[in-house]
Amino acid sequence: MAVFKPDNVEDLYEIGEVLGSGHFGEVRRVRERASGTSWAGKFMKIRKSACTHLGVERSCVEQEVEILHTLQHPNIVALKDVFESRAEVVLILEFVNGGELFDFIADKEMLLESEAIEFMKQILEGLGFMHSKNIGHFDLKPENIMLSDNVSQNPNIKLIDFGLAHHFQQDEEYRSSSGTPQYIAPEVIKKEPLSTTADMWSIGVITYILLSGLSPFQGETNEETLTNVLAMKYEFYAQFFSTTSSMAKDFIQKLLVENPNDRMTAEESLLHPWIKPITRKQAAKRNRSSINMKSFKRFNARRKWKMSYNMVRMCNRLVQLRLLCKGNADADPLQRQCESDVEDTESKPASLLRRRLSSSS
């Protein structure tokens, strides 16, 4: 059982600059006073009333903490400590300072499939360990795939943000409508019972994007994207996949499968010829194939712009909410629970998207 310490986090850690912000708080760099070691502090506002959507429920934080305690793996961000005060919980996490994998790749002029596969192997190894513990991530996307550093020639992958993760109990039937439209599996949209195979669909989408710079199901709106997912509407366009190997396409096709039971598992994916060639011919073919860097750079630039735009919009809405709260000082106290960050509901298609802080855990 994870221990929530009542100590003041500032007694043990110096609080540094903001590394990222989200709907329920922010991530800051912190330095342990005793050792001088840098960590990441995830500061989350706690929901103060059952009738408000402002802040995160303590039970959700407890679940995230328990999951992180269970997942001790080189490719998964590590949890060191948890502190609790009246208004917030602070998670002290491994300081992952290499940035996002997609940003690291976008800085390159060229990347062979064989080089990209080295990153995919680490993602699958971390995911395989997670699934072996009956834990699903349920929010796999480029923002949650980080690098331990950006100076090593072969930095380690770190999977982060376990706010939507779920630990399956024996014979449990679990449903969730949370996630990001272009990465979620069909069974999430259809509100069917979920399993860890939903993560494998997300891996298929991420691989498709990595190789082509094109998102397979992305529409003009969230609703259109979800419709494309349900219709299994995607194809390998020649102008985007001209340098892609047939093995890579086969890898994706074995993951973007409508029936969850027919998708490759993480373990099976690691044995696929694209990841682990059986013959010299297969290995040579990977080394002759490369990702579409021009298209990938465009995709990543648009992705970063959209993230910045959404953050500015969220901050503006928060300011407006605080002004509204000041103007309604005499209103019912239950209607003035404005101390914590506000959840972004405008981007939700029919309550599908319950967003979490996705900066550093």
Tell me the CATH architecture of the largest domain: Orthogonal Bundle
Main beta sheet strand tally, sense and closure: 5 strands, antiparallel
Mean pLDDT: 84
- The computed structural class is alpha+beta
Residues in β-strands, percent: 5-15%
Task: Give the CATH H-level superfamily of the largest domain.
Answer: Transferase(Phosphotransferase) domain 1
User: Gap between N and C termini, in Å?
Assistant: 19 Å
C-alpha geometry: globular
Q: What's the number of extended β-strand segments? A: 9
Number of continuous helical runs: 12
Q: Mind telling me the CATH class of the largest domain?
A: Mainly Alpha
* Percentage of residues assigned to helices: 25-40%
- What strand order characterises the main sheet? 1-2-3-5-4
CATH topology of the largest domain: Transferase(Phosphotransferase), domain 1
Q: What count of structural domains? A: 2
Order of helices and strands: HEEEHEEHHEEEEHHHHHHHH
Low-confidence region ranges? 329-361
In angstroms, what is the radius of gyration?
A: 21 Å
EC number: 2.7.11.1
Binding site for ATP: 42
Domain Protein kinase: 13-275
Organism: Solea senegalensis
